[in-house]
Amino acid sequence: MSIGHALLGLLEAGPKHGYDLKRTYDEQFGHDRPLRYGQVYSTLSRLLKNGLVEVAGVEAGDGPDRKRYTITDAGITDVETWLRTPEEPVAHLQTTLATKVALALLSGRDAAEVLDVQRTEHLRAMRELTRRKRAGDLVDALIGDFALFHLEADLRWLELAADRVARLAGSAAAPHTADGSPRGGEHDRA
User: Fold this and answer.
1) Is the CB of residue 137 less than 8 Å from the CB of residue 23?
2) Which residue positions in the chain have pLDDT lower than 70?
3) Which fold has domain 3-84?
4) According to the UniProt record, where is the region Disordered (predicted)?
């Protein structure tokens, strides 16, 4: 996610201090990965340098002066362009999970066990997302739905992989000819 664009979008509602931006970002988007303060202020510094935000005021406090930031017209245009630009669809061809299953198979370990452990974790995460989605607002529901659909796709893959691993184990136990192919000419093409 573009943190800069998210902060710009949050500034469209009105001027905010860095602390307020961090709090709002974390409430809306950072449930699992809250922003660090340094990340907020370095991003604001870059946005300021690029003319996408400006300082709307400075207030003295007990510590350093507190700057209030506002979005510029160029910042609004940048957010509009970003929102209208489609994201590159990502085909997750090489994930850590797929690599673990492949390595388990290649090393002679129990790939079904790897799949079972992951299935349990996916189901736990799906229950937690569903709970958070039901307790939250429209933004929580949208983010929850997005994550749940991805987890459901992963779960479908886990089920398919478990089925294939089981069939592979079954075919390894079946009698084979001298060249290693199964007797009876049956080949699994799935």
Assistant:
1) no
2) 1, 63, 90-94, 172-190
3) Arc Repressor Mutant, subunit A (1.10.10)
4) 171-190
